Amino acid sequence: MIKLIKHNPYRTLGVLSNTPLRERIANQNKLNAFAKIGKSVIFLYDFDGIIEEVPLRTPENIAAAITAINLDSNQLKHSLFWFINASPIDGIALKYLQSKDIIKAKELFQKRESFSSLINLGVLAFIEGNFAEGYANISKVIHNESYRTDLLETLSLQNITLSENEIAEMFIADLLTEIPVTKLLSAVNNPSDKEIISEKAVNEPIAEINTAISAAKSVNSKDANANLTAGTVLMNSTKTALKQVRDIVGATSTKYQIVADNLVKQILQCGINYYNNASDDDVESPRKAMSFQAYALQIAIGKLTKDRCQENYDILKKAVDNMPPAEVAIETRKIKEELRKFCQQPDKISHSITLLNNTKPLLQTIKAKIGTANMFYLSLSTQVVGNALHNLIEEVNTAQNYFSAVIKVIKESGIDPKLLNYLDDEHSPAKIIDSKVKPVLREAWKATTIMDGFDMESDFRTKRYIPNRNSLKDMCETLHISTSSSSYQSSSRASTTTTRTTTPPRTTPPSSSTSSSDDGLPVGCWVVIIIAIIIFLANVLG
Fold first, then answer.
1. What residue numbers bound the domain in which 275 lies?
2. Domain final residue, candidates 146, 179, 212
């Protein structure tokens, strides 16, 4: 039973809506007198047995009831939810209600339609929980000019200035405090009432959504965790309100589109702020952020908003696809940290060896957990080798460039080559090879033997690693540097690689990390140069 009837101020005062003022005042005085001595009063118009609970008549409740009907507009408002006696039939029917005979009372109210019979039938319908019938009866009075005039005259409210629509708005506003809007809308046939209900009903959830958006906007955009929390709260707390707006005005309405897209934009922004500022330790950040984008894409309406959602979703989907399996997240994070530190160091082979040694046990753990053929494992292992190989190429090329420059100066100087036998050891070509070239090649081969123990993607192994390895091996053997410590076979692990042909992710940005030297010559070309130099030295040095 709706409170509009159960706690109606006319019921609290024990009167009908059109009870003369002197009788209403007499009841007020009686109620106040009994309340002072702590005694209760029962009136005929309490309709005990039909309406649950006898009114609670404390001094505070009595005063509130009197105040509630002081104004003409409030008298009218509450009269729409209470019984009225405007005809002999009404009087007889109300007596049947006092004796709890609802059926007989209804029969009498239905004998002849009038404004009072409609209101009384409407109140009875509300008491019985029939909201559609209750609304229909009372709405008929509001929208019928003759009935509306009769009602105002009976209530002695002829001077009231409220229009038909204003009375309807007042009536509907009260109903919406107790009856779900969807339920009320389904019961309404009057077009103007439907519009009133929709407008009033939709304002509240829209205001709720806008308040939630404002709260999310107030969060520091650089605080990842705060944005994660704000986005989660915003997404979850507005679902009911957004559904209410859609149910009331329809998914195609401009009003729904505006509020939905505004909500989407802020959810998107929370996700972006979180993802962009999440710490490296937060390995789940792509997946968490993508949940925002997925939901935003689901509820977005406008094309521009949808396109933005799709763009962000696609970016995060790619990131999620590249995320490590949950069981190797810790090892992956440690490897990423090693790569980060490596990229901050100079391009030295020693740093490559450190990287390889520090990451190898971690990669072995990952391999044991998810398998050698796992694409994520192969990509990560290849990434480590690719970065390490970069430093080898850079330092070997630097040593070769230095030796080449020395020989060029000697040749251009016009010095008799035989005189080189008498040069100080420090400046002799042989000493330069021993002190500047051979140590680099030995360390490069040492690093290579470590890389031999790493799994790699087949495309990287074939096109990048093996050619560089073979070139380095030739150089070492030409200079009589032992390469016998490695048992590596160029075809090893071919059965464990995948068919993936994409270039592995790189942690280092330099484009020079290829199989070519700084002056554009491939490593293999340097083998020819070294051999030519050795022949030259053999002739010169006898």
1. 200-323
2. 179
